[in-house]
Amino acid sequence: MDSLTLPAPVRSATPPVARPVTITRGAMLALDLGSSTGWALQAGDDFITSGTVSLKHTRFDGGGMRFLRFRRWLEQLDIDAGPIEAIHFEEVRRHIGTDAAHVYGGLLGVLSAWCEENLVAYQGVPVGTIKRFITGKGNADKTAVIASVRAKGFSPADDNEADAIAILLWAIETRGGVR
Q1: What pTM value is reported for the model?
Q2: 92: helix, strand or coil
Q3: Which residue among 18, 56, 106, 137 is buried most deeply as judged by most CB within 10 Å?
Q4: What is the pLDDT of residues 113-166, one digit of tens each?
Q5: What is the DSSP string of 47-58?
Q6: Pairing relation of β-strands 27-32 and 84-91?
């Protein structure tokens, strides 16, 4: 049996040059998942933007098109405003309607798979936690959440955007629930 002999490592008289390391903080994204998904994003420069993205399907769409549109939207947001470092989303435990539960579950599946694939941290935040944080009351209604978000200087177009802003503010203040 022949043995393989490895060459001796080459020693250099000059040590390798230490390359400067640039640490950049990525963006933080908050989502209120649904057919009309609310989003709020804090970029690395601390600038906050928000809005809603419609994931409603048309009569010409197949059953999975809303989920493909959501994935593409995430990918484009990561390119445009990213890299996305962390995502916090409203964790819903109970839905009134079956369709809403199916849409939420599908979007959550896409979100968690995308985050795993792209090594992005993600965390669900219970609805009561968000409402208690933004209004002081864990069972506040949509109008109270919108009013509280507006009192903090934001102008949400609807309750979905207001929820996303509230999630983002919670994540910023509590460092993702650490404090």
Answers
A1: 0.81
A2: coil
A3: 106
A4: 999 999 999 999 999 999 999 999 989 999 999 999 999 999 999 999 999 999
A5: -EEEEEEE-PPP
A6: parallel
- 10 Å CB burial of residue 161 (0-12, 13-18, 19+) is buried
Angle between helices 127-135 and 159-174 (to 10 degrees): 80
Q: CA angle 103-105-107, nearest 5°?
A: 70
**Half-sphere exposure of 58 toward its Cβ, with a 13 Å CA cutoff?**
3
Phi, psi of 87 (to 5 degrees): -130, 130
The tokens 């995502």 sit on which residue? 87
Q: 3-class SS at 40?
A: strand
- Give 38's contacts (C-beta < 8 A, 6+ positions apart): 31, 32, 50, 51, 52, 156, 158, 159, 160, 161, 162, 163, 164, 165
Burial of 166 (0-12, 13-18, 19+ CB in 10 A): buried
Six-digit token string for 95: 């839905």
Q: Name the percent of the chain lying above pLDDT 70.
A: 84
Any long-range contacts for 53-58 (C-beta under 8 Å, 24+ apart)?
Answer: 55/103, 55/107
